[in-house]
Design a protein that fits this description.
The chain is an alpha/beta fold and 372 residues long. 41% of the residues lie in helices and 11% in strands. The chain starts with a strand and ends with a helix.
Length: 372
């Protein structure tokens, strides 16, 4: 099946082709018109995905100054229509040449409700295959959600087994799904609350940290987990690989005979090699450069495995109770790397004083050198 898409821009039609996947997703260019006429023209094309340039008002050919609008205004109009016609709802992504657009439309801001994803044009060029896979995944998800006729069951959408149900029996998710009036509301809930943050599901960086191995050993760990049915197979899994947290933890407990994160990374890697062979390399602490630390989670900034004691909490304004708070390793704090992300991460106020101290703290090797 080939999905139809629309790319709306006031200048450039090149990204319509770059976002398309031959034989799977055909995106056509749409010129600017008056807002309501443009929305009607888009709807008549019956798309599964609409890509909007943010600056639709830069070259408003044929429009009076008081008729110009930005991509967010058009998105709001399209979303309002979709509430009335949920059977025709479609994914909407925002495209911009400005990197700061990620900050304006970050997931914890209300305006982000309008868009399933935000892409910078430079990113589309550098990650074209990955971006295309993500857009195709959005189309498949919306196609599935349309067929649910407004009755969204979390276990069905996540392709959960009976053993997985306790992990997602979460009122904050199930209740909001029952209240969702259109596919885009269900899609946003899954993307922002389940796919994009560690909780019932985790990404491969978090899996590696739990097993105490370097990210380079990720493919080997993922292969081991296939036999445990730990790999997530629900909506969006084709473009955003995730693993069931409870299954990962159970498998690790079986291998190590104890809580995984209670063992040094070097010991966990050694036990994996003894049992399965392979070249499992231990995760090295970003701060101490030692493989003997109790690596437990992936840094929210650099994604390397790090320890609780050598990390600070990241501020998250709307952290669900069922989600795991992300943390930033001391190395990223001292080098300010966490501030170079777009949008930048922010240290939680509970750890602000610690972060200040970390900025001038000597690392273990440096401390020894000073003493000599």
């Amino acid at each position: 099946m080939t999905y139809r898409g629309v790319f709306v821009d006031d200048q450039d039609d090149v990204f319509a082709e770059q976002l398309s996947t031959p034989g799977r997703l055909d995106i056509e260019f749409q010129e600017i018109q008056e807002l309501t006429e443009l929305a009607r023209a888009i709807g008549e094309k019956t798309p599964m995905l609409v890509a909007l340039d943010y600056r639709l008002d830069e070259v408003p050919t044929g429009l009076a100054p008081n008729q110009t609008f930005k991509g967010s205004a058009l998105a709001q109009h399209l979303r309002d229509v979709s509430i009335e016609k949920p059977e025709s709802d479609f994914a909407i992504i925002l495209v911009s040449a400005e990197a700061k657009i990620r900050t304006l439309y970050r997931p914890d801001q209300t305006a982000h409700d309008l868009f399933d994803r935000v892409y910078v044009k430079e990113e589309i060029n550098s990650r074209r295959a990955a971006v295309r896979a993500e857009l195709l995944s959005l189309c498949m998800a919306y196609d599935h959600l349309r067929g649910q006729n407004g009755r969204y069951d979390l276990a069905e959408l996540m392709n959960a087994d009976d053993d997985d149900r306790p992990a997602i029996d979460i009122q904050a998710l199930t209740l909001r799904l029952t209240e969702a009036k259109a596919p885009h509301l269900a899609a946003k809930l899954l993307l922002s609350q389940v796919i994009d943050r560690p909780g019932p599901l985790i990404d491969l960086a978090e899996v590696c940290a739990h097993f105490g191995v370097d990210q380079g050993s990720g493919p080997e760990v993922a292969e081991l987990l296939k036999a445990t049915k730990a790999e997530y197979g629900g909506l969006f899994s084709d473009a955003w690989p995730r693993w069931w947290t409870h299954r990962v933890e159970a498998f690790a407990q079986n291998i190590f005979g104890t809580r995984a994160t209670g063992l040094p990374a070097s010991k966990r890697a050694e036990l994996l090699r003894e049992r399965f062979g392979g070249n499992f390399e231990p995760a090295v602490s970003p701060w101490t450069k030692s493989a003997d630390e109790l690596v437990a989670l992936a840094c929210a900034s650099c994604r390397r495995g790090t320890e609780m004691k050598h990390s600070v909490a990241a501020f998250e304004a709307y952290l669900p109770r069922f989600a795991k708070r992300r943390r930033i390793c001391w190395d990223c704090v001292q080098t300010d790397q966490y501030q170079n992300r777009t949008p930048a991460l922010v240290v939680d106020e509970t750890d602000t004083s610690l972060a200040v101290e970390v900025r001038t703290k000597l690392r273990p090797g440096e401390a020894a050198g000073k003493a000599e």
